[in-house]
C-alpha cells in the first residue's frame, strides 16, 4: 500500500468507530489531508518507475490529461522577496536573523545571488548545543554523529550550511514541489531561475494552501480558466457543482467540447472526482 492508501484506510477506520467521535473541525482537517496526500500521490505516480502500469482490464476510467497551462505552478505559491545570507555571515548573526525574521531555514547565496546551500535551524542548534557542552557519547554514537560534530565547528553560513541545496524553479508544478518537499522532509525550498539565482522561496504551508483550494476556488477556476479562456464556452451553459473536491457538471455541450472540458477539469490538481451529467447537443 502507498502512503496515501494507508492514510485513507486509517481515516475510514477512525470514522467507523462510534466510541471515538471526531473533535470539532476534525472532519475538515481530514479532508484537507486527504486532498493533499492525493495530490502528492498523483505526483509520485507520474514519476518514471514509481508505479506499475495498469493492465487493460484494470485501466482507470479517469481521463489521462496532459498538464494544462492553468495548472498551478510554484510561481503561484512562492514568497518574494526571499530571505538570504552570504556565505561569510557569522554564526551569531545567523541566530539573530532567524529569531528576528522567524525563519526555519535560509538560502545561502554567493556574490552573484546564486544559491550554494541552505542553513536550517537544526544546523544552528547542533552548533549551539555542542558549544554549550559536548554530550557524552559512546564509540558507535561518535561514529554516527561524526559529520554533525564536524559541521558544528563551522563559524559562518558557508561552513554550517547543507550543500548542495534542493531547489525548484518558478515553473515547477506545485504537485511536484510538494512531492519533493515531502520526500526530502524539508520545510522550505529555495526557488531559483535557470541560472541558479534566488528568486523566491516556497514553504510546505504555501504548497499545502495552493493544493487544497476550497470548493469556491475550484468552481471559479473551472468557470474562468477553463470554460471562458481555454474553451471559449459560455459559463451560463454549464452548471458547476463542487462538493469537497467532487465536481459535477450539468448542461448541454457537443461531444468534442464536452470531452475537452472533462479532461481539463480532471487535470485540476485537487479535484478528487468528476461526475459527468452533460447532455450532447
UniProtKB/TrEMBL annotation:
SMART domains: CBS. Residues 78-136, 161-217 form the CBS domain. It comes from the Bacteria. Keywords: CBS domain. The keyword Zinc-finger does not apply. The lineage of its organism: Bacteria, Bacillati, Actinomycetota, Actinomycetes, Kitasatosporales. InterPro entries: BON_dom, CBS_dom, CBS_dom_sf, Diverse_CBS-Domain. It comes from Kitasatospora griseola. SUPFAM superfamilies: CBS-domain pair. This is CBS domain-containing protein. Residues 1-24, 44-70 are annotated as: Disordered.
